[in-house]
Design brief:
Blueprint (H helix, E strand, L loop, with lengths): L2 E8 L4 E7 L9 E7 L9 E2 L4 E8 L2 E5 L2 E5 L4 E4 L5 E5 L5 E8 L2 H15 L11 H10 L5 E2 L4 H17 L7 H4 L5 E5 L2
Antiparallel strand pairs: 1-2, 1-12, 2-3, 3-10, 4-11, 5-8, 5-10, 6-7, 6-9
Helix pairs in contact: 2-3
């Protein structure tokens, strides 16, 4: 049977995601994606998932990571488990492209969050690190607070800032989630070899 996968690109962070398993509500709502990350590339920044477990397996290259305050480097074949509530971050620590398989459970809301971040970046609505402007970020953070919480600034500061910025953001036409991003077609569809 020929299997294909959808590919999504975040030009700001350098991520190229090949979605191997779409979240469907079955199998614990599992999502599996191969993330290709260019040298110097990184994900959006240190964060916590309140109720999501992530498992990273390095397929090729080197991934630097922080997990619960510890830092390290993982090479091919190494797996890092990020339980819910544990701060983590990862980046390409090598000189070539890193390929990391990421398993996320539950994955449906995570997928919606990622589609919004990638869509904003594709439309030039983020900074070089892949973060939207503060008004957009306030609404995004509120919309996806069940999925991701950034560790900086500290959570109490975020609550105050977002309480002030979110109403202004709404008045300026920003939203927490955009259907056009959640439903955006992939950059390409590729054949899976395995």
């Amino acid at each position: 049977m020929l299997r294909t996968a959808e590919v999504y690109v975040n030009p700001a962070t350098g991520e190229r995601a090949v979605v191997r398993v779409k979240p469907s509500g079955a199998d614990g709502d599992l999502m599996v994606a191969d993330l290709h990350l260019r040298p110097g590339g990184r994900i959006v920044g240190e964060h916590v998932h309140p109720a999501i477990e992530e498992r990273f397996t390095v397929i090729r290259g080197e991934a630097g990571f922080s997990l619960g305050g510890s830092r390290g480097t993982a090479g091919p074949g190494m797996t890092i488990l990020c339980p819910p509530g544990v701060p983590h971050d990862w980046w390409n620590a090598g000189t070539g492209e890193a390929l990391v398989r990421v398993e996320i459970r539950p994955g449906s809301r995570f997928r919606d969050m990622i589609m919004n971040l990638f869509g904003l970046a594709q439309d030039g609505r983020t900074d070089a690190r892949g973060l939207p402007n503060p008004l957009q970020l306030a609404l995004f953070a509120r919309e996806f607070s069940d999925v991701v919480v950034f560790t900086s600034p500290p959570r109490p500061v975020q609550r105050v800032l977002f309480a002030v910025l979110a109403p202004i953001g709404r008045l300026c036409g920003y939203r927490g989630s955009y259907p056009e991003y959640v439903n955006r077609a992939p950059s390409e569809v590729v054949r899976l070899d395995d």
